[in-house]
Design goal:
single chain; about 240 residues; alpha/beta; Rossmann fold; seven-stranded mixed β-sheet; five-stranded antiparallel β-sheet; globular
Length: about 240
Amino acid sequence: MSQTSLPDPVGHALMAFLRGNKAAALQVQCNVSEDEELPASYFFRSLWEMPELERTALEECRGHILDAGAGAGCHSLELQSRGFQVKALDASPGAVQVMQERGVRAAACHHLFDAPAARERFDTILMLMNGLGLVGTLDGLEKFLTHARTLLAPGGQILATSSDVSYLYEDEEGALVINLNGPYYGEVEYRLSYGDEASRPFDWLFADAGIVQDYAEAAGYEAEFLGEDDQQQFLVRLTLRS
């Protein structure tokens, strides 16, 4: 099955919003929390509508930038306006079309682990909106940190947000109820739908700060934590040890 024939609820929701349906929204199903709605408008936010962690990440960007999981391109467009060369990456064909129509100059449609046609090197890999989750699982995190070595220019950095979702497993007394012999609690499964169209279930990783530091150090990176919000989301910079 070709990529273009796969369900693309994200792309179609974003395109509907771009075409004037301001009420367009994705339905989000998750195996560890209740279903919720994600308005398509969130993907089109301006700089001052972005959370502080995202604005901090944009300030820390440098050089040639890869915006991974770029969505509707809000971060890429902001960085372009600041004079940066940006490549926006998303696995959704519809999202890439939306970005192109909005003025993102370089947008590519493939998955994070697929090698780009050109062997580009980036000074910054940007992964926002809990963007580290794109790796899917802890095994995926290990794989990504190895893969990123082929993408980073000398002295390059990864700027990513992630969250500690242990609060989802607290009982009424605030104690954690986690099966220590089971999968890591931050490995969750999502399914997105828009109208009658639903994605296949996919893995998403919410890696806590300790996990990120441990995996980064094991892969030869330095981890620097640049901020945290009241939702237990944090911004981390990963750089290869010299």
